[in-house]
Predict the structure.
Amino acid sequence: MSRQPLRVLAIGAHPDDLEFQCSGTLAKYAARGDTVFMAVVTNGDIGSATHTMEEIGAIRKQEALDSAALIGAELIWMDYHDEFFFYNEESRRRMIEVIRMAEPDVVLSHWTEDYHPDHSLSGMAARDARIMTAVPLIVTASAHLKKIPTHFFYDTLAGVNFTPEVYVDVTETFATKQQMLACHKSQTAWISDIFEGRSIAQMMEIQSAFRGMQAGVRYAEGFRALETFPRARDYSLLPLE
């Protein structure tokens, strides 16, 4: 029996977060014919020591578009200011609308205990919006969903405070993951300055290789199922093959 294509929505706080943590998995989804959406919550408008906020915001949007194009994903640009995403009624409604617009079978988001508040709060917003997307009396531009999506959390930076329940082998798509992250050229010097000379590409490869060692493959990405009721541990919705 043939498999029905999935609709997959990955939500990242900043341009390059999805590339770092789950783009190997997104590339696997896309390669097998699933529809992939990459939602970016903030516009990255403080990610430079040389450009104005307007300039770097525009640069980072184009970088995100270039990255998404490599796997044929659709970019959803939420356009909140970098470092200043707050979880409130407005942002909850916006998250509900983004999920409804994508109509996903699967949502991937930040873990709610990551090092950066934009990461943690966007993960909380995505988690909490899940059931609300199916509530008709919560009105947004898109119609309410008929089916509540399954939610997985992806890894944290350096894996701190995160123990994967399941691993996706991304060895075959690791080159694509590297290419997607490399689209974010504006962040090379910025990340090096912020993280004491560490390269974003090197950090990503080390973490992918470490998760791969845990999983018994060369490169892997780690995930956890949503921890709140109703908890859906249908790992078959991840591209494990």
Q: What stands out?
A: The beta strands are 7-12, 35-42, 74-80, 106-110, 150-154, 166-169, 220-225. Residues 7-226 form a domain with the Rossmann fold fold (CATH 3.40.50.10320).
